[in-house]
Amino acid sequence: LAQQFNVNRSTLASATAILHSYGVISATTGGGTKISSNTWSLLMSRPALNWHNYTSSGQFVPNQPTIQTINQLETTDFTRLSTGELAPSLFPKKLMRQALTDVTTELNSLNYLPPEGLYELRVALAEYLKQWQIKVNPENILITSGSLQALQLISVGLLTHGATIFTEKVSYLNSLEVFQSVKSHLVGLPFDNEGVAFWQIPQSNAQQLLYTIPSYQNPTGLVMSLKRRQDLLTFAAKRHLPIIEDSAYQDLWFAKRPPLPLKSLDTHQTVLYLGTASKFLAPGLRLGWIVGPQAIIRRLSDVKMQTDYGASSLAQLTLTKVLQSSAFPTYLNDIREQLKQRCLLALTALQDYLTPYATWRKPTGGFYIWLQLNAEISVNQLFHQAIGSEILFNPGKVYGNQATQMIRLSFAYTEPIIFRKTICQLQQLIKQQLET
Ligand code: PMP
């Protein structure tokens, strides 16, 4: 080789040694020196595809970086005051085990179900909704893979590009890019103690709708009054304004039920009502539902079919058994009581440690306390300090720019004793920040 390529023998030897040390070639005694197999595949491959053009395309814009950070860190051992889920210690093991046993005992196949969902589940939900005075037939219900998918189906199945979606300013929707696939505009409306200022929605020929979380709103925990609900419905009927009512936390009241859902007062078929099993039972089931006029359910079922052929059969069978179980109402009462206790303990911790630094409102249901930090405290800095101490909370800015002094704390996930300890740590971090 040295002669053929007219190079010095020692140069060739050191080159061979280097290639060998990098694993590009391999030598066996008596077998000579060979190019390693993975080197061949590397040599034969074309230049790597530049995926960037693809990862920066598509219908979805990325989640906000802060949300991405929180999502990543939620898989670690961090203390999660950010998490909108029930604590694992509240999981109804017995109820779920019984439901799963019943399901597997009766299971004969796991084929596709109709895209609108398991009929028995829709019957069970129609029955369940009666307690909220929502009187519907199973045909008015579509089962979705979580209520997040319901929002997705609505946006790709019902909206035109550029539709305007009015929300409470601040809202869960601002933390999601869910309506981005139709390039819609989110417009936040102010709200007071009674609820959203719907009358500020301008008259328009363009497509527009209102998304609202009337009971135990995410992130504020606020409840829309009965009067505001009635007035909103009158306005919506007059304006032909569709309303998406997100009832995710509705069942989780502490002392008394919230006012009746918009859907139960909806005489003009203006409301698309969204429910979910995620907050009162188990988000891992990935089950939600849309209640609406049959034409809407048919259209969205067709879109659902094209999206994923329907929600998981196993999950639907399981939820049906849970809803049919005589132990279910007791479980729900118990969860309400547990959340109420957790909330009380969380408020005591805040009172003890954060009184001079923040203000907050006492929630009457749901998972969250919406806290306003004093102006001299940087929420952004506190968020990063907290991450340094392995603590997660949701800074208000993810729900909208006007909420930069706010933070959302969930008392549903973290055990009360840890919650208290963590609030004490946050107090230390605030003190540190104010001293420097
Ligand atoms: N709506 C609200 C108000 C929520 O807080 C959440 C979950 N954080 C959802 C919808 C979506 O829940 P899921 O898709 O699990 O039903």
TrEMBL record:
Gene3D superfamilies associated with the record: Aspartate Aminotransferase, domain 1, Type I PLP-dependent aspartate aminotransferase-like (Major domain), Winged helix-like DNA-binding domain superfamily/Winged helix DNA-binding domain
Organism listed in the record: Loigolactobacillus backii
PROSITE patterns named in the record: HTH_GNTR
Pfam families (alphabetical): Aminotran_1_2, GntR
Gene Ontology molecular functions: DNA binding; DNA-binding transcription factor activity; pyridoxal phosphate binding; transaminase activity
Entry's family note: In the C-terminal section; belongs to the class-I pyridoxal-phosphate-dependent aminotransferase family.
The protein's name in its UniProt record: GntR family transcriptional regulator
Key words of the record: Aminotransferase, DNA-binding, Pyridoxal phosphate, Transcription, Transcription regulation, Transferase
SMART domains the UniProt entry points to: HTH_GNTR
SUPFAM superfamilies: PLP-dependent transferases (SSF53383), Winged helix' DNA-binding domain (SSF46785)
